[in-house]
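Reopening this one. Same input as before:
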Amino acid sequence: MSKLTGFDFWSETLRSSRHVVAPMVDQSELPWRLLSRRHGAQLCYSPMFHASVFVRDVRYREEALQTCGEDHPLIIQFCANDPSTFVQAAKLAQHCCEAVDINLGCPQAIAKKGHYGAFLQDEWDVIGNIVSAASKELSVPITCKMRVFPQVEKTVRYAQMLEKAGAQLLTVHGRTREQRGPLTGVADWSQIKAVKQAVRIPVFANGNIQFADDVDRCMSETGVDGVMIAEGNLHNPALFEGGRLPVWQLAEEYLALVAVYPCAKSAVRAHLFKLCHHTLQLHKALQEKVAVAKDMQEFSVIVGEIKALCMEEEKRYNSDPTRMVSMVTEFNLPHWLCQPYVRPVPVDNLADDECMSERVEKPKRILEPVVVNGITLSRSQRRKWRRNPEIDFSGASRREFNICGKCVNPKGVRCEFGLCKICCRDWTFHETLDCIGHKFLMKSRASNAHEVIEGRFEDSEDYVLAEKSCSGERRLVAEKVCAPYVGIDAGGLTCISSAASCASYLSPETDVAATLTLMADSDGETVKQKSIGITLETNKNDGKQWESEHAVRTTSSNSSERQADAHGDDGDRNPLPNSNS
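Same output, byte for byte:
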């Protein structure tokens, strides 16, 4: 079955949704989406997810795809600047949603740094390739959320480019990339109207929606097919219903959903701050409690306190509204009812010199010093202290570490030699020792490898077990001896060499970890004494030149009586020549 497009997709798959909740980072999680749906929202977007992280991080992906049967229709949004990455992420999510959206409207600094969102809108070729690839390879439609340009004509061409690339629905935020934070200002509905008239796919409007009346007015003025709300939804999730419910009622309902569908505490805290904004502005003690709450139980207790306080003030307000002016907000509504927060309109500082001078001369807020046990706390220490009043800043409870015997790092708690991990590794390597605490078993492995090597060549007659080194690495190899003889090196060790070395007879899979040292007795007979070193890796033919350090001749039982002539040829009495092991 082919996927639906355009208005067929909107009417059938999205069920002609007109009331839409926007994608909001760490804010439009599952419990909040369900709360919004229960109060009038018909379509919800997921938070914005990073496509590259979504692809490589399984845990991030599992948390992002949290949904349920009640949470549909749903559109999942990604930010990306590479077609293959976006498509790969979308394929991993398309089974959980009705469509996938690409974020082309995020104006935040992190989007500028990551080169995505609204900071990608000048690279039309890249955007077109992303949308086109998604449209061809995904089993669900691709939609786009965009911002406008200062010029209406450019905005229209941009929207038409997205439509041509394969977008099946556009959400137009009527603000430019520069309109954010204190410069947010008012969205331009005329640009949204121009886009709606220029394309042949459904269009959602975004911006300036604070009250229920704004929804109908926006659709009437722009002719769009639906209205998306973001910040208005955070302050009043029942906005689409047209009602003004008490903040504590919606807070309790939200916490009940969180109990069923757990989410991050940071998201819960942020929602309570937004939902109860006006109440918390009047009651700073409650605001402080929300800021330091550690778990869901504490959040529930705080919401209960807000409920009790609001109900008490509501009784006083109903008895004499004229005397309770302090309880009324700028919208002429009591603070316990859900209502929007409107940012101040940005002022043109260049044109208003008086305002500029006031802003420059405004003194900085001076924080009163906080002293705990005779210690004046810094800003970061104050935050820690508010969360945990029992914390000790004196340093008395700080754990002290003993220093390594060879460097300034802390030594290992269980190290047998009183060394840090790095020094212990080097020490056990060079001295062929075992450290149980750090699990460096150099001596044990050398002994085990010695037994493996002897067992492999016990039926052989003339082989040389030689320790060779190259570029700081050491290995033990076995070579066929063509003309064996005995040579005594400067260290007094007996080494058996050959005039011509042959290929190693150890298999590539053998993990060798031993060096054999032999002493010569008075008769010149080679005697196996002990293992003193360690070799690394396996005996592979890697093309390196390996220099022999020590070697020993091994013989089978039927030739054990054979001895090398210690006083034979006076030729080269050096270890094995260089060879490719």
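So the earlier flakiness isn't reproducible anymore. For the record, The first helix runs from residue 6 to 13.
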